[in-house]
Specification:
The structure is a single chain. The chain is 55% helix and 23% strand. It is α+β, with helices and mostly antiparallel strands and 235 residues long. It has a four-stranded antiparallel β-sheet. Helix 1 (10-30) packs antiparallel against helix 8 (132-160), helix 3 (58-73) runs antiparallel to helix 4 and helix 4 runs antiparallel to helix 8 (132-160). The protein is globular and about 55 Å long. The protein starts with a strand and ends with a strand.
Length: 235
């Protein structure tokens, strides 16, 4: 079975995207010294984070969501995260955006089809298993991102705790769904080789299951008929 998440508004889409990037960065920080791929994915995720930060006001979007959750649950842990976020958010993200190494890497990754080893010799040295600078940089970047990571983790956990399971009955790969009020994203477990096509809004949605093929050119509708569980997460 394969797990599919589908956000139903742009703020939740942004939060889920950030959650994915933060996980990549934490994986790099915890990876073994010889896992070059994990380190490079972590670096790419940092650059993507900077790109997202240039298009969205991450501070404002995150605080809006934290404040909304706190007004709903009055959780003291959320209050502490909000306090930490207020005290460090401006300085920390500004410091990250001014990092010379990340800015050079950002420029290199924006090249058309970059051969990163040839374009950025410093990166070869940074990725070396014997590099002490790499470990120091990763620890420093993680420390700067800690308020964002804590806030994002708390937001995602809040929604996960509000899961509303719903049994769907598919006929020939198709199902109509009525969603609970104020649903912000849904989660669907599907058989391997099938993937979903969602259409609709926060209250009513159609789900069509498609079957992938080797060419990926002409997807065909799945013939799956039976029950699947949909988890809804409501605000």
């Amino acid at each position: 079975m394969t797990n599919y998440l589908h956000p139903l508004n742009e703020r939740i889409r942004l939060i889920m995207r950030l959650n994915y990037l933060f996980k990549n960065i934490l994986t790099a920080e915890q990876a073994s010294k010889t896992d070059e791929a994990a380190f490079f994915i972590g670096l790419e995720s940092l650059v993507y984070l900077l790109n997202i930060g240039s298009r969205y006001d991450l501070n404002s979007e995150t605080l809006k969501e934290l404040d909304r959750i706190y007004l709903t649950v009055k959780d003291q842990n959320i209050a502490e995260i909000i306090k930490l976020f207020h005290s460090k958010l401006k300085q920390n993200f500004f410091t990250l955006k001014q990092d010379d190494f990340l800015n050079i890497l950002k420029q290199k990754l924006n090249l058309a089809g970059p051969a990163y080893r040839a374009d950025f010799p410093l990166l070869i040295n940074w990725l070396s298993p014997s590099s002490t600078i790499r470990d120091q940089d990763l620890a420093r970047w993680k420390n700067l991102l800690e308020p964002y990571i804590q806030a994002n983790t708390a937001i995602v956990k809040h929604y996960k705790d509000l899961s509303i399971p719903q049994t769907l009955i598919f006929e020939a790969g198709f199902c109509l769904v009525s969603l609970p009020k104020s649903t912000c994203f849904i989660e669907l477990m599907l058989p391997h080789n099938d993937y979903p096509e969602f259409s609709g809004n926060q209250q009513r949605m159609s789900i069509r299951l498609l079957k992938s093929n080797h060419s990926h050119k002409h997807a065909t509708q799945s013939d799956f008929s039976g029950e699947l569980t949909l988890n809804s997460y409501a605000i």
